[in-house]
Amino acid sequence: MSEVDQVHEEMGLINAFGMFWRRDEVDWSPTAVKLLGVQQAGSDHVDFGAQAGVYLLYDQNRVVYVGRSQKPRLGNRLRDHTKDRLSARWNRFSWFGVRSVGADGALGALPNSGIGVETLIATMEALLIEGLEPPQNRRQGDGFVAVEFIQAVDPKVANREKKKLLLGLVAES
Fold this sequence. Notes:
By secondary structure, this protein is an alpha+beta fold. It is built from 4 helices and 7 strands; from the N terminus they run αβββββαβαβα. A 7-stranded mixed beta sheet has the order 3-2-7-1-6-4-5, with helices on one face. The longest helix has 18 residues, at about 155-170.
């Protein structure tokens, strides 16, 4: 068994995820949307725009849509929802990705190994428990050992907010 296969076997199907990321902290305008995340405050950004997996769209904390991105284009798939019938119906999203993050911060290849029915069912349960946080579940799903990433604000969005704040201060004086 190769080292990559061993890592995928240890991690399971889902290798990275992000919970309750804010729509307004992403710059949706570029051709390849960046979904920036960090493992902890102060660590280097990882771009999950090319992740593949499943996602949840929320209106505040209520799930309004569950979708999937089978090709490595999660960022662009989410951008599609900023322009379609769901555009005014969501302000947060969670995602669960199958591409692992390497030591260099780059996303790994799509896994190509077969998955057993038990693993698939356990993973689906784990995703729903993590994403929906039902009050009666007391633990994570079985076999869910993915690494969670915290959203990082796109620098372009942060700069726009700073400019707005400065313009507001100038207008007040």
